[in-house]
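[agent] plan:
  1. take the single chain provided in the ticket
  2. run structure prediction with default settings
  3. attach structure tokens to the ticket
  4. add a short note for the reviewer (M.T.)
[agent] executing step 1
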Amino acid sequence: MTSVWDSIPRTPAAGTPPQGSAEGPSFEEPGRRRLRAASVWVPALAALAIGGWGITVPSLWRDESVSAVVARSPLSYMRQLVGDLDAVHALYYLLLRPFAAFGGSEFLLRLPSLIAFAAAAYGIAVLGRRLAGPLAGLYGGLLYALLPMADRYAQETRSYAIVSLVAVLATWLLVDALETPSRRRYIAYAASIAVLGWFHLYALLLVGVHAVAVWTARPRRVLPWVLAIAGAGIALLPLVVVASGQRETQLFWLGRPDLGDLAAFLREVAGNVPAAVVLFALAACGVWWSRRTPIVALWAFAPVLASFLISQVYPVFDPRYVLFVVPAIALLAGIGLHAVTTSLRGHIAVPIIAFVVVGALTFSSHVEIREPASRPDDLRSLAAVLGAEQQSGDGVLFVPQRYRLFATVYEEPFRHLTDLTNEPGMYEPRTAAQFTAAAAGLDRVWLIAPPAGPRNIGDPRFVELRRAFKLVSNRSFGDTRLALYARKSR
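[agent] step 2 finished; step 3 output follows
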């Protein structure tokens, strides 16, 4: 049976002599080798350069800060946090620890994501070269490097860029195992699926794409694929068991998405509507031209649709949770660009114009995500203000107490404050009476909290704070509020 990925026409590069021509292999083969090498390394280097541009400019925000704080903490603290509420990120926290150990700067903490971004661009080019030729792979990898959504998560201390890389790797390993079956290849594929799930459980929606691809391409190889997935499932079982009991603490904020959320995701991939129109027009050409490679089109769209439909009953949809489809969208667009170029007799101006247009349309989005306050929280500025304005003997109160976990990522100004949130060595927050006793000798208290709302206004410590202290200043740093309270006249 002919493989669906083998049936893609391989179009030689423009100007390359055909096989068996008078110029022969001595002229053809070195040029092709150079093209094959450039087709995978150019996207990786481009992604490294684009992703590294301004990587330390935005402040760490709350999700990144949790990663940083946990990675810097003793292993005993990490075990407690993972066991109580964050098992789904355990593998990422372990991966991050060596980077945090060498100073834990913003650059080092974000470096794993940047490396993963460049490696994913390389993997897209390799996969594209195998499925549709080196130019399709080159275009797909370069488009991925230019997409603002992928670029943003290349600059974040979270696991999503790594998840995208592992999704690319798993898909390549599946193609390899189906074309040249062996026990070693299926074991490698099973391991990649297990790693994918350990980095993010919802990325396992990719397995459904792989199931369809296996059935349509190599029905006789369904059994070894099923066995590989079963092996991966066994490796994932401990995580599934623990994480299933933590969903409410992890995803309580998710709601049911609507079609507007779906459209917003498509727009976010490219950064804005005009860029999205160009990107998805090229992807549509890729779907049309490569109808015999359904794995790429399925990977690009099926997980997003599945997540959206599941979320109508059991909310799991968030754009970053389906970031792993962006490599497929880029590859599909790269195949489409190659198809358009081929239909126009391989004119070199076509891809050049396409990349100039995409680069111009996405440039403003790239600049925007590199603004100092471009993330939901500007914790660096908060820490700077707190450090400049605090006085000896000031206290600090986190309401709710989970704000301590991320707000202290820039830790220096917090070293000099009396923490009124918990009793020393205790996990539960102080009662109103305990707070009053702890704050008895203080004249000023800094409050770190979300914007005022019903959830924190009724907190007993906050009620006591407002009873004994008056508000002096109140500033917002994104979604985090820093307020100063001074004691009322005794």
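[agent] step 4 note for reviewer: Strands lie at 395-398, 418-419, 444-449, 469-477, 480-487.
[agent] ticket updated
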